[in-house]
Amino acid sequence: MKFIFTFLVFFALSYTGFAQHKAKYNVRVVDRSGNATRGIFYAVSDDGMTIIRNRKDTIKISADSISAISIHRRGIVAPLAIAGGLTFFVLAVKSDKLVGSVVLIAAGVPVGVSGGLLIGNLLSNKKRYKNLQPKDFPLIKPNLQQYTVLK
Q1: Do 145 and 151 meet the contact criterion of CB atoms below 8 Å apart?
Q2: pTM of the predicted model, to two decimals?
């Protein structure tokens, strides 16, 4: 039992540490017509930004067409949700009473996952830019460069 508990704690901590090591940011860009483009924030330049979409295509969006940008960090929400769920699962396994362990698994694991999701969303640093004009892009470009994959 101690071996399983130690293994689960080690797995949760290593997964959390690994997820923190790769700092990638998801971005959602809304253009002037209201269409949203989502993907990984790759690069920013003087005339626009480059985004990697889910199918690994790169899209270059010009600064003139951007009206809103929303950026949030990847890889922090899922590990905390997994750790929250595993915490209650381990407590259920360590419990001597059958009814107590069933209650901890049935009620505790969803509560742990929900709590992990909530804490992960609170800790993920989000940045939003709304009502952007073409003249605003050179002013926010230095702030946007800290979120890009290509530095």
Answers
A1: yes
A2: 0.61
C-alpha closest to that of 66 among 135, 149, 3: 135
- Burial zone of 138 (CB within 10 Å; 0-12 exposed, 13-18 middle, 19+ buried): exposed
Give pLDDT tens digits along the chain (151 positions).
666 777 677 767 666 655 555 567 888 899 888 899 988 888 888 788 888 887 778 889 988 888 899 888 777 777 778 888 888 788 888 878 888 788 877 888 888 888 888 887 777 777 888 888 878 888 888 888 887 776 6
DSSP string over 114-128: HHHHHHHHHHS-EEE
Helix axes 77-94 and 109-123, enclosed angle (nearest 10): 150
* Residue 96 burial (CB count, 10 A): 6
Residue written as token pair 């009814």: 99
- State the Cα torsion 121-151-48-127 to the nearest 10°: 20
Amino acid, res. 87: T
Q: Pseudo-torsion of CA 108, 111, 117, 119, nearest 10°? A: -100
